[in-house]
Structure formats: structure tokens, C-alpha cells
Amino acid sequence: MAADPGRTTEAAPERRDEDEAQTLFDNVDVDRFRDSWQGIQTAFVDDPQRAVKEADELVAVVIQNLATTFADHKKELESAWSHGEPATEDLRIALRRYRSFFNQLLKA
């Protein structure tokens, strides 16, 4: 079926922008994790076994950091909603944030 020339497809780029606006980690954390990873890769030449052990530990730290971020976000939402029924707009924003989080996890 041919595309309708009068139809716009702006929703997809807008959604991608929203997804990219939310990040899983602060830039400082990203830089720290990347620096650690670079050090691990460099150390592999001299001590491969230690480098793999450190890589495992770093990945565990990144996953824990991600879990903490998610738990904090969930706590924030639950706290905001503990004062009664949340407004539809608040729920829409929450769902957008979850979508962003979800899409970033799948991109990783």
C-alpha cells in the first residue's frame, strides 16, 4: 500500500527524542564506567584472568546502579501517588518515562 502524501510521520521521531531525553545514567557515571572499562581492557594484556574478573565486577556494579535508579524512580512515583488518585497527565508522564527506560534497556 502506498503512503498517503498528506499524512505526516512526525510521531516516530518525536518518540525517539523523548526516549533519548531520558538517560539511564548520569554523564558522570557513564564516564566513570567507560574509564573503568578502558582500564580493564588495557590490563587484559598483562593479566587476562584478573581483567575478566574485574569486567564481571564492573558489569555487576552497572547493573546494581541501574536497579537502584529504577527503584528510586519507582519510589518517587509511589510517593507522589500516595496522596490520592494520580491525575491522568501524571500517569501519562510516568508511562512515557517507563517507555523511555524500557526502550533504552532494549537498545543497550
UniProtKB/TrEMBL annotation:
Q: Where is this region: Disordered?
A: 1-23
Domain of life, per UniProt, equals Bacteria
For this entry, the protein name equals Uncharacterized protein
Q: From which organism does this entry originate?
A: Amycolatopsis coloradensis
